[in-house]
From TrEMBL:
Protein name: SynChlorMet cassette protein ScmC
Organism of derivation: Candidatus Mediterraneibacter tabaqchaliae
Length: 283
């Protein structure tokens, strides 16, 4: 049995795997020791499991429920052939089991694929954290999170802050948000999309900035209810699981009331940096 531990959002995640696997570079800096907060044990099976429960969701994955037990069925391609099944009990979500068909184990030969089977959003919700689509920078010790749909300019704004203000880019695509000691913090992840920027670092959240393209630079502070709507739209939410959705709503309601959220309608230029910087310094 091969064991690896990784620190995700300040907590220790342990994977127990019965076969050798490759560990991509981005995971190395997240390696850690210590007592695990979440454990996933991977097991090989020769046949698909039976009696998975009632089918409650069907898309690129199938989701089954049997009492308090949840099973997510993964496919090699869209609904062609199931090859892995992730199980956990809602009453003990810290312990997960993932079955992999023995004939397909070579397809799961790297840590990225194993994490994919574990479902990052499940790890986050077990930690009472939210997974946000964002470019996460650290400036003057505080986290600034640029969030918006793909192609709106998150990476551009993050890079402008890096070049003009010396900000550090912690992650170019995602961040985990979790309240720790009464303070909302953001953590980097070993996933960063096309930006390839993934650092195992964190910062207290100083501001969340919702980006929109515009022909001039304009900035306004969002009220909590409006801020919630925009943040929710860029957060991973499982619509098929009521308890998950309710937890995310509670977390984001608190976040929207605790952290300044701005709407920045902007051009991809230094002026967008200056207008935001002025307000952040005043805050």
């Amino acid at each position: 049995m091969h064991s690896r531990k990784y620190r995700i959002a300040g907590r220790v995640i342990e994977l127990k795997v019965p076969f050798p696997f490759a560990e991509q570079e981005q995971f190395l800096q997240f390696r850690c020791g210590g007592r695990p907060d979440i454990v996933t044990e991977f097991k090989l099976c020769r046949q698909p499991p039976e009696n998975k429960g009632e089918l409650i969701h069907s898309s690129d994955i199938h989701v089954f429920r049997k009492g308090t037990r949840i099973c997510i069925e993964h496919f090699l391609s869209v609904r062609v052939k199931p090859y892995a099944w992730l199980y956990w009990d809602e009453e003990e979500p810290e312990e997960m089991v993932c079955l992999i068909l023995e004939e397909d184990r070579e397809l799961c030969g790297n840590m990225g694929h194993l994490f994919q089977l574990m479902r990052l959003e499940q790890i986050c919700i077990t930690l009472r954290a939210a997974l946000l689509h964002t470019s996460f920078i650290r400036w003057q010790g505080k986290g600034i999170l640029f969030t918006a749909p793909s192609g709106t300019g998150k990476s551009t704004q993050a890079d402008l802050w890096r070049r003009t203000e010396g900000a550090e880019i912690i992650n170019g695509d995602r961040a985990v948000l979790r309240k720790e000691g009464g303070i909302w913090k953001a953590w980097g992840l070993p996933y960063a999309g096309s930006s390839r920027i993934f650092r195992n670092e964190s910062a207290p959240v100083g501001a969340i900035v919702v980006l929109r393209k515009n022909d001039r630079n304009e900035l306004r502070r969002l009220r909590p209810a409006e801020a919630f709507k925009w943040i929710y739209s860029e957060t991973v939410v499982r619509s098929w699981e009521d308890s998950y959705r309710e937890t995310i709503i509670d977390l984001l309601t608190d976040l929207s009331m605790s952290v300044p959220v701005w709407m920045l309608s902007c051009l991809p230029d230094r002026g967008a940096v200056e207008i935001l910087k002025k307000e952040l310094e005043r805050e």
